[in-house]
Amino acid sequence: MVPVFDRDVMAEGMARPVNWRGRSGRYYALAPERLEDFSFHGGELYLIALGPMVLWVGAAADLVSDPVSRARFRLAMDCADRVFQVDAKADEVERMTIIWDLEAAEPSMGLSAAYAAARSAAATSSRPRSRIPSACR
């Protein structure tokens, strides 16, 4: 059951931002969008993910100019369960830096949950972790 306020906000497409932490440690407030209604708008950056795993980060121009990005995007759209709009400036260097940073991003969970996750990861660090889900291989 969704509270009335949250249901009304989600119906209007104004979902609350979700915090993700990039590989550099920088936090990003990403705006969730409905995957079913996803379409590119101008030069906006988007992050496509399957759960907490980033599958693709980029903009429409990346699909036109880069065949590798286009192939990764197609795979991501087949496997993804969520998409986020990324707030980024028009500066090309900053945009590429944000893409690099978010390609290894993870959802931010809060301090106590992050502490527990870090302890768990330290205990199981000997196990290799695949970046691509087996369903998408």
What does this molecule look like?
There is one protein chain. With 137 residues, the chain is α+β, with helices and mostly antiparallel strands. The protein has one domain (4-136). It is 37% helix and 22% strand. It has five helices and six strands. A six-stranded antiparallel beta sheet has the order 4-3-5-2-1-6, sandwiched between helices. The longest helix has 13 residues, at 67-79. The termini are far apart. 19% of the residues are buried.
Report mean pLDDT, rounded to a whole number: 80
Query: What is the chain-wise order of helices and strands?
Result: HEEEEHHEHEH
- In spatial order, strands of the major sheet run 4-3-5-2-1-6
Roughly what fraction of the amino acids lie in strands?
15-25%
Count up the domains. 1
Count of individual helical segments: 5
Overall geometric form? globular
| Approximate helicity band | 25-40%
Most strands sheet: 6 strands, antiparallel
For the CA atoms, what is the radius of gyration? 16 Å
Low-confidence stretches: 1-11, 111-117, 123-129
Distance between the termini: 35 Å
